[in-house]
Each structure stands twice: as structure tokens, then as C-alpha cells.
């Protein structure tokens, strides 16, 4: 149980960089928004999927 709590702090920080990178990418490169949206959407979905799997694993334990 202690191992669960030791690694649980990372859950909120995994999906956090995705929206920040999306915002920075759209601000810095406004002309390439379509390609950036696709690229950052894949990144965001990947990070959220990792968090979901990690959270499910922690809840099962």
C-alpha cells in the first residue's frame, strides 16, 4: 500500500504538459495550427491514456 501512495503523486502531472504544449504551440506557430492540433491531440490522448492505465493499476492494487 505504501508503494501505491509513493507513486500516486505523479498522476496529475502526466496530463498537465499536454495542454500547456498545445497552447504554446498554437501561440508560437499560428499559421500551422491544423498540423499542430493533430500532433498535440495525439500527444494529449497518449498522456491521458497512460494516466488512465496508471490510475486503474493503482486502484486495482
Outline the fold blueprint.
Elements: H1 2-7, H2 17-28, H3 33-60
Helix pairs in contact: 2-3
Transmembrane segments: 6-28, 40-60
Protein name: NADH-plastoquinone oxidoreductase subunit 5
Keywords: Chloroplast, Membrane, Plastid, Transmembrane, Transmembrane helix
Please characterize this protein's 3D structure.
The chain has one domain. Helix content is 75%, strand content 0%. It contains 3 helices and no strands. Helix 2 packs antiparallel against helix 3 (33-60). Keywords: Chloroplast, Membrane, Plastid, Transmembrane, Transmembrane helix.
Keywords:
mainly alpha, plastid, transmembrane helix, membrane, 3 helices, 61 residues
Condensed summary:
This protein is an all-alpha fold and 61 residues long. The chain has helices spanning 2-7, 17-28, 33-60. Keywords: Chloroplast, Membrane, Plastid, Transmembrane, Transmembrane helix.
Number of strands: 0
Order of SSEs, N→C? Answer: HHH
Give the end-to-end Cα distance, rounded to a whole number of Å: 8 Å
Number of folding domains?
A: 1
Unreliable residue stretches: none
- Mind telling me the C-alpha Rg? 15 Å
Question: Which bin fits the share of residues in helices?
Answer: over 70%
In terms of DSSP E residues, the strand content is: under 5%
Biggest beta sheet summary: none
The number of helical runs is 3
Mean pLDDT: 74
Q: Categorize the overall geometry.
A: elongated
Structural class: mainly alpha
Amino acid at each position: 500500500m505504501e508503494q501505491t501512495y509513493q507513486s500516486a503523486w505523479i498522476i496529475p502531472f502526466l496530463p498537465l504538459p499536454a495542454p500547456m504544449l498545445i497552447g504554446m504551440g498554437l501561440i508560437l506557430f499560428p499559421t500551422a495550427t491544423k498540423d499542430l492540433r493533430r500532433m498535440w491531440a495525439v500527444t494529449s490522448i497518449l498522456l491521458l491514456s497512460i494516466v488512465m492505465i496508471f490510475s486503474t493499476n493503482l486502484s486495482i492494487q
